[in-house]
Amino acid sequence: MRFEVWAPQADRVALHREGATSALERDPERAGWWTGDAEARDGTRYGFAVDDGPVLPDPRSRRQPDGPDGLSAVVVQERYDWRAEWAGRPLPGAVLYELHVGTYTPGGTLDSAAERLGHLAELGVTHVELMPLCPFPGRHGWGYEGVSPWAVHEPYGGPEALKRFVDRAHELGLGVVLDVVHNHLGPSGNHLPAFGPYFTDTHQTPWGSAVNLDAPGSDEVRAYLVGSALAWLRDYRLDGLRLDAVHALRDTRALHFLEELSTAVDTLADDLGRPLFLIAESDLNDPRLISSREEGGLGLHAQWNDDFHHALHATLTGEAQGYYADFAEAPFTALAKTLTSGFFHDGTYSSFRGRRHGRPLDRTRVPAHRLLGYSQTHDQIGNRAQGDRLSASLSPGLLACAAALTLTGPFTPMLFMGEEWAAGTPWQFFTDHTDPGLADAVRRGRRREFAAHGWAEEDVPDPQDPATRERSCLDWSEPQEALHARMLAWYRDLIALRRSHPDLADPDLAAVRIAHDEGARWLALRRGDVRVAVNLGKEAAGIPLGLSRARVLAAWEPVRTPDADGLLSVPGKSCVVLTQA
User: Could you report the per-residue pLDDT of 54-89, keeping only the tens digit for each?
Assistant: First the structure.
């Protein structure tokens, strides 16, 4: 078996495997690379020593059986016998479901999560979006402090378990998307600097030195990240990747890393003969991110749209702190703008940032499915002091309204696990750092952050306490309870309507029509022949639909069809979906 590693500044590199040591040779064809052949099989443990230093895991390790600091293990990808024939499932028309493996079930493994995939198929979603799976210290965590970006966290089940999960999802008709982190690696277990210039002090990020995308040596670093992305899509038959915080990717080169990555993914899709896509998390509100390369864009296929979330959250809750301030001044107006223009901040002043922010999106050119819409995500729940979901503070009727706007709106909808039955469990920030100093620093930092917002220290959950993770696990007995079952049925009905009514999948953002009343707290959405009326006020509201002949498709509370003048009476904290009769 061929072993190789990039170590451009090394004088010597040795391969250590199962008690044997052998020197690697410089590769005459590739500067900075060291190679050598050695006997190995699936599961063989090995590592590299640079200039007689400690034996470290392979930067391209496919498996870390003993965690980020242990030896790597050989993975022969071809050993797995795939069961499902899979032609792929594209992003247009999708409904995504964000899932954290460690809390989706109490078991916290890929295999236990796979046992619950039937629930998602019955719900009607099309793709599961897995939160990061790369190895990180300890057993439980969110996954954004991972290292070894080619490997699967061993406590989740390792690479074989991910293949079993994907296989089962594909058998049920579900695509699988993986959240990957290219903008930083975790503070513990990151051994890349020992091998080469994977990071640079030219730029700084919230996590320290930036990943080296434009300094000397960056060609190989970019190839490292692109190769990792392609390996997930190819070796594990994934359908797409979610790219974490792409605004933190510091790159001054003429060919941006994201354009290089999107080109490589599109080429792989052509080679494999099935659709593949990239979804960015971005704070930039820059349409160039999701514009085609032919039009001068970076060629990513979609991005999360936090503006829709913030406007919807402010409208539902009345919260006005932090970044919600910009949306809370006139929340229905903000929500209407995002539903018709994509971005709220499109060159407008942001009080949170103290400057103008964003750029207008060309509604005639950018299809609406390139923006993901959601009322809740891991970030927007877990980064609250107590990890409280909307269900902790809103009535069932308001939750139903949030679902209606998300699932009948113009964007590609995404749900956060448990949302579909108004889960009563929180989703809190939890870690399992094995370094006591780091664990204490995270604990104190978390408490200090929320103390500035008036939270008492004892009210902020300890991330290192196992009970914090345990509280965050979904309670699978809830969907059988009356209120939760009703909400689950509502989500199923809305997803089914989106699938059966082409107007609800129309990607033309310019065709969306909105009417709203800020004072009366109602909003009406028109998408072709479909109307959605949402009343967030306490009392019944008369909403003018301009539609006298209509058929009710779904209603949270019973309603009559509009009167002869097209006026629809909607109960307080309720919503209805209608179509022209």
Answer: 999 999 999 999 999 999 999 999 999 999 999 999
3-state helix, strand, coil in the chain (%, to 5): 35, 20, 45
578, 554 contact by CB (below 8 A): no
3-state per-residue secondary structure call for 289-331:
HHCCHHHCCCCCCEEECHHHHHHHHHHHHCCCCHHHHHHHCCH
Q: What angle do CA 422, 427, 432 make, to 5 degrees?
A: 155
- Distance between CA atoms of residues 521 and 517, nearest Å: 6
CA angle, residues 361, 91, 160, in degrees to nearest 5: 135
> What gap in Å lies between CA 485 and CA 345, rounded to an integer?
37
Nearest residue to 525 (alpha-carbon basis) of 502, 541, 509, 549: 509
- Report d(CA 89, CA 117) in Å as an integer: 16
Per-residue pLDDT tens digits for 156-201: 999 999 999 999 999 999 999 999 999 999 888 899 999 999 999 9
Q: 170: annotated binding-site residue?
A: no
In a 13 Å sphere around the CA of 560, the CA atoms on its Cβ side amount to 10
Distances (CA, A) of 563 to 477, 520, 548, 559: 42, 20, 6, 11
CA dist 344 → 305, 331, 359 (Å): 10, 11, 10
Query: What is the structure's pLDDT at 229?
Result: 98
3-state secondary structure of 174: coil
3-state per-residue secondary structure call for 353-370: CCEEECCCCCCCCCCHHH
> CA triplet 100, 102, 106: central angle to 5 degrees?
120
Residue tagged 């953002």 (tokens):
509
- Which two three-digit tokens encode residue 493? 């009905």
Tokens 């966290």 sit at which residue?
153
| 495 annotated as a binding-site residue | no
> Is 435 marked within a binding site?
no
Question: How far apart (Å, rounded) are the C-alpha atoms in residues 230 and 226?
Answer: 6
Q: Could you tell me how many residues make up the chain? A: 581
Is 182 annotated to bind ligand? no
> Hey, which residues are catalytic here?
244, 281
CB 175 within 8 A of CB 99: no
Taken in order of first residue, the domains within the chain and their CATH numbers are 2-56 (2.60.40.10), 96-435+460-500 (3.20.20.80), 503-580 (2.60.40.1180)
- Whether 242 has a binding-site annotation, put simply, is yes
Whether 243 and 302 have beta carbons less than 8 Å apart is answered as: no
Residue from 157, 150, 154, 160 nearest 136 by CA:
154
Q: Is 357 marked within a binding site?
A: no
Cβ–Cβ under 8 Å, residues 379 and 389: no
